[in-house]
Design goal:
Blueprint (H helix, E strand, L loop, with lengths): L3 H12 L3 H17 L19 H20 L2 H10 L12 H22 L2 H14 L4 H4 L1 H24 L7 H17 L8 H6 L5 H5 L1 H22 L4 H20 L3 H19 L3
InterPro entries: Prenyltransferase_related, UbiA_prenyltransferase
Pfam family, one: UbiA
Protein name: UbiA prenyltransferase
Amino acid sequence: KRSMGYHFRTIWLFAKSDLKTVVFPQTIFGCVALLSRGAFQLHVTAESFNSLSRIPLVIVWIWFNLLGEAIANQRLPESIIEDTINKPWRPLPSKRLTPDEARHLLLWILPAIYLVGRIFGASDSSVALMVLSYMYNDLGGANENWLFRNALNACGLSFFSLGAAQVAWGPRATPGKTVYAWIATLAAVISSTIQVQDLPDIEGDRARSRKTMPLIYGDILVRWSVGIATLFWSFYCPYYWSLHLLGYIPSVFFGSFIAVRVLLERNSEADAVTWKLWCAWMGLLYLLP
């Protein structure tokens, strides 16, 4: 009989690789949204907005939604094939869970996600993420073409950001247009650079016949596209917030490092590190407001 610790570890393994992609950066976004209410033109009543006490709720909301996305993706046969090559420690390729057990778990998780979103004030973002997850996984949106895949990733991370902000602000807050414009800008950043995640996963993506940008256009073009776009956004995002010249230094320095690295370090191990650096760079952009 499986112990409670066994089940907790299984849940942890489902989401482990997405901590750097989703949990940490989106928690940063939620904290910044809470502390930068002036920059986001937030209208809120004093009694509903008095401390950082909602940050744990932000983390819980992010975790529930991430878990649903992870199970929906990893339970599919082609995902198990890919993970056997790229991430054999995940619950299904390591035989900790069967695909049918994962399906049953998802049946319980999805209503819980909506309930948590409803209680915390971000049910619309939770529903949007469920729809995007269905398009990405069950309808094969991730395999359709690289442009659609990038757009789905950008929309997904953007709704994580919006939901994190909604939970941080509370149900009585009324955000201005600024927050939506900033999230749309970040969506453009993500959609034009997130192909960097496909560089370390080329063999797994080839095994499942996924039409990623590196497999269609080749390694060199992807690296140049990431390098140029990362440099552009590293300058544009501080400009967007009208920051002082010193405010450009962190994003430009980090972005330049990523751009040079992705062009010079060309192997799967180095690409995995570059992908992690990209996640940290996004977290840095989230701090700009």
